[in-house]
Amino acid sequence: MTDDTAGFTTRAVHAGRSQDAASSRATPIYLTAGFEFEDFDHAAHHFGTGAGFGYTRTGNPTVHAVERQIAALESGAEAVLVASGQAAVVTALLTVAGAGDHIVSSTHIYEGSRGLFLDNLSRLGIETTFIDDIADEDAWRRAIRPNTRALFAESISNARNDILDIAAVSGVADAAAIPLIVDNTLATPYLLRPLEHGAAIVVHSASKFLAGHGSVLGGVIIDDGRFDAEKAGHNAPHLVLPGRGGFPSVAARHGGKARIAYARESVAPRFGASPSPLNAFLIGQGVETLGLRVERQSRNALDVARWLAAQDAVESVDYVGLESHPDHELAHRYLTGGHGSIFTFTLRGGLEAARDFVERVEVFTHMTHIGDVRSLVLHPATTSHSHRSDHEREVLGVRPGTLRLSIGIEDVSDLIADLARVLEPARETVA
To answer: 10 Å Cβ neighbour count for 251?
Structure first.
């Protein structure tokens, strides 16, 4: 049938179709629900092996290109892109744990992750033990049980800038034949690559620094590709035992990449965490300039933190780039190219001073987000950490006058001028 003989509606649907090859310099956006099979056997081969592309929920060329891009930056074997950072944490944990299992987590984590552990995974029969002093290797070791399936922490914590000693904690995880999962959102692979220090799995909220512009949501899981079925199979029976109907095990089919293959085949698509190809494209575009942005943001953050530390209105600044931070030396061991751009500082005037600050700044944007090209501010005690007790907030360094900054790429002189305009009246009041 040709365009001349086909009916109007048929032409509307099919006339634009083309299979001509074209080499685009930018990653093409395959904004399609499914992909056409060449013939009967091609479809059967895809469903039997997973090779190629059949349906975007299980694989898409745009998504796959961004996965390769991020895996390379994190020194990982493979990556799985998902719909949000929260989806990345869920997918990573459900890849390694199930009903009756246990995980050990740092207390100093994103509140969404903490709520997931306490409210949602607990309903699925997965229990969590939290570690307050993440620098205490024995605390991690003592918390491990026979049914522990993973350790979880952030490379740079939100909001106090605690640095995880990845090599030490991964050593504890390796001794128990379980993976250390590190949320590397705040550090980004430009500053730190946890897999190079012994972590087994890395997760990101790609909505933040990777995308960079605050326009899309996304998340990613990166695996080291070193799953050892002989050593760790007893802690991951779902990876080493045959599947339904005697289907070969995940480990038999994928070897050291068994964990990430299970996440790709059985967790992300079945729980519906697949990303939009358009979002994947925008994340990939952002990743191309990640190093340039993070370098500038980190440099700006250090200048802002130093300026704030010298102000009478400021009680303390929790930025790991300052020598006053307790983890400053540890940061030098792990971070290269800067110290990140997200930190907290505390005003002497408490809650009212914080309120005045967020309502008067002009260059800084008051919103719930981090890792943007724009500089952002938030009051953790009444927003992100509002469901914590007073004691828990104090342990985390979140007090009534504490504000979180996410420093962007603006001219640092404009950022400091904005801060000075707001804080100078406070200085006069203090004086």
So the answer is: 24
pLDDT at 431 over 50: no
Q: How much of the chain exceeds pLDDT 70, in percent?
A: 98
Q: How far is CA 316 from CA 308, 322, 323, 344, in A?
A: 8, 11, 13, 9
**Angle between helical axes of 412-430 and 350-360 (0-180°, round to 10):** 140
User: Which residues sit opposite 377 in a β-bridge?
Assistant: 366, 405
Q: Is the dihedral of CA 92, 94, 96, 101 positive or negative?
A: positive
Q: Match domain 59-287 to its CATH number in 3.40.718.10, 3.40.640.10, 3.40.50.150, 3.90.1200.10.
A: 3.40.640.10
In sequence order, what are the beta bridge partners of 309?
none
Average pLDDT, the chain: 93
From the options 3.10.250.10, 3.40.30.10, 3.40.605.10, 3.90.1150.10, give the CATH code of 290-430. Answer: 3.90.1150.10
Give CA–CA dist 47/53, Å, rounded: 10
Q: CA 282, 284, 290, 292: dihedral to nearest 10 degrees?
A: -80
Phi/psi of residue 55, nearest 5 degrees: -150, 135
Mean pLDDT of 20-27: 82
Report the alpha-carbon angle 356-362-367, nearest 5. Answer: 75
Under 8 Å between Cβ of 201 and 149 = no
Domain boundaries, given as residue ranges, for the chain = 59-287, 290-430
User: By the 8 A CB rule, do 216 and 205 touch?
Assistant: no
Helices (H) and strands (E) in the chain, counts: 18, 12
What's the rounded mean pLDDT across residues 150-157?
A: 97
CA distance 143 to 102: 10
Tokens in use for 113? 């992750």
